[in-house]
TrEMBL record:
SUPFAM superfamilies: PLP-dependent transferases (SSF53383). It holds the Pfam family DegT_DnrJ_EryC1. This is Aminotransferase. GO terms for molecular function: transaminase activity. Belongs to the DegT/DnrJ/EryC1 family. CDD domains: AHBA_syn. It comes from Rhodanobacter panaciterrae. InterPro entries: DegT/StrS_aminotransferase, PyrdxlP-dep_Trfase, PyrdxlP-dep_Trfase_major, PyrdxlP-dep_Trfase_small. Keywords: Aminotransferase, Pyridoxal phosphate, Transferase.
Length: 375
């Protein structure tokens, strides 16, 4: 008799957090017993530890990744570096949050096409998109792989632009000892539970070397106030809770180990999947990829996804519709981004995570190899 195999989950958050359950519970108990739940010692400690991990001077914990991105732009507006109506160059193929942060600040997103191999921002395309109102480049380290930061930094210097990183998918990706978050003027991280460093709820952080920007964002996230009931700016309420900061302090200790395991999984896929119709992800340099997602490309993506599902393997699409084709951005529908649009029809994310077993990876590989691509 055949033994029914368990499905291979795309990512089991339960398994991810079960590894540290005792430490997480102890940290939660510490916060519960402290009687202090917002803007306290856990957050201050996490901010120090995360800034140190990224190799920058400041980390400011906020409510989520979108707010982190948005607060960077808001901070620059308040400091006079950007004005309403200015343009920010952004990858056409990114999560909608990158666009929302721009438009929320009444700035104009200028989407550009990706490099066809890495799916990350193509510096030549960025340069061609620079105009008189361009003030910033928002680089996204898509799927966990660093964008070409040396080339983008050179462009930003030459044209006097701000370079901002959307590092929501790239905690721990590194190049020549520099980590994601340390390349631009400022970077945004998300600690959404599925990210490489995930809280047990929402969370985010801005990291920056810029003292003035860090101070402004720290005030903006807390009603525009540095001293209670004295409001210097029209801020908002977007803080990283003590409980989440305590969870993240536990998980940050294991982030590098988790990324090492993600790399092993990715390597196993890259060695094992040899299929004429499944294109493996291109890797610029190994250490530059934190493998948040393992994304293959297939002209019959939907058929491949159904085939994997029939073999009990979950997969996801990041993302099915690009921001400029979303109803929310009706004004951008005319943008001409053929490669971006094609990628959204062809990309498929295979299961990856720090708790995925070698057996599960082998089952995914075998199922991919057995895919009979329809004409
Ligand atoms: C997850 C993500 C965000 C937003 O983070 P949230 O914490 O969910 O608000 C922004 N940009 C990218 C590229 C992301 O993947």
């Amino acid at each position: 008799m055949e033994i029914a195999l368990m499905d291979v989950p795309f990512l089991s958050l339960k398994d991810v957090n079960a590894r540290y359950a005792e430490e997480l519970k102890a940290a939660a108990a510490r916060v519960i017993d402290s009687g202090w739940y917002v803007l306290g010692e856990e957050l201050a400690a996490f901010e120090r530890e995360f800034a140190n991990y990224c190799g920058v001077r400041h980390a400011v914990g906020v409510g989520n990744g979108l707010d982190a991105l948005s607060l960077i732009l808001r901070g620059y507006k308040e400091l006079g570096a950007i004005e309403e109506g200015d343009e920010v160059i952004v990858p056409g193929n990114t999560f909608i949050a990158s666009f929302l942060a721009i438009t929320e600040n009444r700035l104009v997103p200028v989407p550009v096409e990706p490099d066809p191999a890495t799916f990350n921002m193509d510096p030549a395309g960025v340069e061609a998109a620079i105009g008189p109102r361009t003030r910033a480049i928002m680089a996204v380290h898509l799927y966990g792989q660093l964008a070409d930061m040396p080339a983008l930094a050179a462009l930003a210097r030459r044209h006097n632009l701000l370079l901002i990183e959307d590092a929501a998918q790239a905690h721990g990706a590194a190049s020549a000892g520099n980590k994601a978050g340390a390349f631009g003027e400022a970077a945004a991280f998300s600690f959404f539970p599925t990210k490489n460093l995930g809280a047990l709820g929402d969370g985010g952080a801005v990291v920056t070397r810029n003292d003035v920007l860090a101070e402004r964002i720290a005030a903006l996230r807390n009603y525009g106030s540095a001293v209670k009931y004295h409001h210097l700016f029209q801020g908002l309420n977007s803080r990283l809770d003590e409980i989440q900061a305590a969870m993240l302090r536990v998980k940050l200790k294991y982030l590098d180990e988790d990324i090492a395991r993600r790399r092993q999984v990715a390597q196993r896929y890259r060695d094992g999947i040899r299929h004429p119709h499944i294109q493996l992800p291109a890797v610029a340099r190994e250490e530059q990829h934190a493998w948040h997602l393992f994304v293959v490309r297939c002209s019959r993506r939907d058929a491949l996804q159904q085939h994997l599902q029939a073999h009990g393997i979950q997969s996801q699409v990041h993302y099915p519709v690009p921001p400029h084709k979303q109803p929310a951005y009706a004004g951008l529908q005319d943008a001409h981004l053929p490669l971006t649009e094609r990628l959204h029809d062809e990309v498929l994310s295979l299961p990856i995570g720090p708790t995925l077993s070698d057996d599960a990876v082998d089952r995914v590989i075998a199922a991919c190899q057995a895919f009979e691509c329809p004409p």
